[in-house]
Design a protein that fits this description.
Blueprint (H helix, E strand, L loop, with lengths): L1 H19 L4 H32 L32 H11 L11 E5 L9 H17 L2 E5 L8 H11 L7 E3 L17 E6 L5 H6 L3 E8 L11 H8 L6 E5 L1 H8 L5 E4 L20 E6 L9 H15 L3 E6 L15 E2 L6 H9 L3 E4 L9 H7 L3 E5 L15 E3 L3 H13 L1 H15 L4 H12 L6
Parallel strand pairs: 1-2, 1-4, 2-3, 4-5, 5-6, 6-7, 8-9, 8-11, 9-10, 11-12, 12-13
Length: 464
């Protein structure tokens, strides 16, 4: 009992100390007297009660441990329980009634509604290409855009508009629609005005477009085979189901275009361009200067095979030591955590295209892996920067990457990839040959030409 009383007294003294907030007894008395003079006894009583309630309250629980990396992007495990991602057969039928009339699409497009999930970086390849195309449509054809971001609970117009306008000033006045407070993801799009065309981007934005029928044509801006982002299962099935919604495809790269067309969807494919081409080669190094290798290192993205690249880097560094410097870009992570300290220097997520260009044009060899149906932008940017490229064998990217001609292709095995990198380190002439051919190829790709072809498809001028 005595122990319990001592504990109670000790607790009371701690609470009183919290009330005093470090003040001496005299200072506390002076503060209370001043408060009484200013607000009277009622004010003094209110303040005393407020402070006592805070001091006597139970301590706040410790913060929860951070969750592990969520490999389902913005979606939690129970995404399938969300109303947005569980359309009824009636919703599917209403969508089919619209997409069946695709051949009747308007020859003149003045308005476009885009369904885009929350994004936090305008320079990411996919979202940057979308806004680039929106900018082209507005400046070339006067299209008025409406962007519907349906899945973030507390975004502000300013937080969305300013990053977009900082990169594409012509889009500074686009209409931005955000979900009502506390109602994300939003499912009722009836209040949106009609538009000539409507478009979605990544697979989860196809579900809002499925429900929006106040348009004459629906388009799917496809930039990867997104079902392969997940193991075969629920999310794979939900992503793959969107390819049967019947939306016409605007597809990034020819290989991916063939795949989307195989779902019986009208499709146009475009080849992405690079804003810079730097043909100077890095085939000679000053004596003692290391060959600089850049890897696209993203631990959170399975399709970029970070573990494979990590093992490859160990082998390269073991063989060449100080003769090679390996840098990583693409994501923030600690080399110590992945046993890469002293092997790889991580530059993290580069914030501007100038940062990307400066790194690539000062490097010699670019290494990346991609195991979905899209090459990603890395090999294109590597080649445009005058780098020699090593990447994995992938039949879906053979339209771009040709072994021993403009790159070295390797089986996805650490020893084999390390050997390919080693060949380029030891053979400046091979570096020069492959990088030169790659830079010449990439220089033939042009955004204006590619987007003009997409536009002809949108308005029905091409029978693609």
């Amino acid at each position: 009992m005595a122990t319990g009383n001592s504990r109670a007294v000790s607790g009371a003294l701690r609470k009183f100390a919290e009330l005093r907030k470090g003040r001496s007894a005299r200072a506390l008395a002076n503060d209370l007297a001043r408060l009484q003079a200013q607000q009277g006894l009622r004010g003094l009583a209110h303040r005393a009660a407020f402070e006592a309630e805070r001091a006597l309250a139970l301590p706040a629980p410790p913060p929860a441990a951070p969750p592990p990396i969520n490999r389902t992007a913005t979606h939690a495990f129970d995404v399938v329980f969300s109303e947005l991602y569980d359309p009824s057969d009636e919703i599917l039928r209403a969508n089919r009634d619209v997409v069946r009339r695709f051949e009747e699409r308007p020859g003149q497009v003045e308005t476009a509604t885009w369904f885009i999930p929350y994004f936090n970086h305008v320079y990411f390849g996919g979202i940057h290409t979308i806004f680039r195309f929106m900018n082209w449509m507005k400046t070339e054809h006067g299209v008025a855009h409406r962007v519907v971001i349906y899945d973030h609970p507390d975004l502000t117009d300013k937080a969305v508009r300013e990053p977009i306008a900082s990169v594409f000033p012509a889009l500074g006045d686009i209409d931005i629609v955000l979900p009502p407070k506390g109602r994300a993801p939003y499912v009722n799009f009836d209040e949106l005005p009609e538009s000539d065309i409507a478009l979605c981007s990544i697979w989860y934005s196809a579900y809002p477009l499925l429900r929006f029928n106040k348009t004459k044509a629906k388009f799917y801006f496809v930039q990867d085979f997104e079902p392969s982002f997940y193991p075969a299962g629920t999310l794979y099935a939900m992503a793959e189901a969107t390819y049967r919604f019947g939306f016409a495809g605007i597809v990034n790269t020819p290989g991916l275009g063939e795949l989307y067309r195989s779902y019986s969807n009208p499709t146009v494919a475009f080849t992405p361009a690079v804003d810079w081409v730097h043909p100077e080669q890095h085939s000679t190094k000053a004596p003692g200067q290391p060959v600089q290798v850049v890897i696209y290192g993203r631990p959170s993205t399975d399709r970029n095979a970070f573990e494979l690249l990590a093992s490859t880097c160990h082998k390269v560094k073991r063989q060449f030591g100080e003769g090679v410097r390996i840098l990583s870009a693409g994501e923030d992570w600690d080399p110590v955590e992945f046993n890469l300290n002293g092997i790889v220097e991580n530059l993290g997520l580069l914030n501007t295209l100038d940062d990307v260009r400066n790194l690539y044009t000062s490097s010699d060899i670019g290494v990346c892996c991609m195991f979905s149906k899209h090459p990603s932008y890395q090999p294109l940017e590597y080649l445009a920067s005058g780098m020699a490229v090593v990447t994995n064998v992938n039949p879906s990217t053979s339209w771009l990457l040709r072994d021993e001609e403009n790159c070295l292709l390797a089986e996805p095995l650490p020893s084999v990839m390390a050997e390919a990198i080693g060949r380029l380190i030891c053979d400046p002439e091979l570096r020069a040959k492959t990088s030169s051919a790659g830079a010449e190829l990439v220089a033939t790709f042009d955004w204006q030409t590619e987007f003009a072809g997409v536009w002809r498809f949108i308005v029905g001028e091409d029978s693609l």
